[in-house]
Amino acid sequence: MAPGVGDLLAAQLSVDAGPCAGGLCLPAGAGELIVQGENLGARVGAQRVEWERLMPAQQRLLKTLGIEPPAEDEVLVPVR
Prior knowledge:
- By secondary structure, the chain is of the alpha+beta class.
- Helix content is 35%, strand content 10%.
- The protein contains three helices and four strands; from the N terminus they run αββββαα.
């Protein structure tokens, strides 16, 4: 059985987990990982595109998961 979204997030939130925990890694691009119909790569990309519009608490939680804001010279295109 494939891990659920909750399993993936729980692994990411464990105290000593790095960007990958238990063999589970958040995807870098759209279509790389689909869990229970949710395209996690597209979700990660959307959060990074809208980083400046997120609340500080949301940014902090994303950083906890290993998701970083885009670099100043990085060009991100929203996934539709």
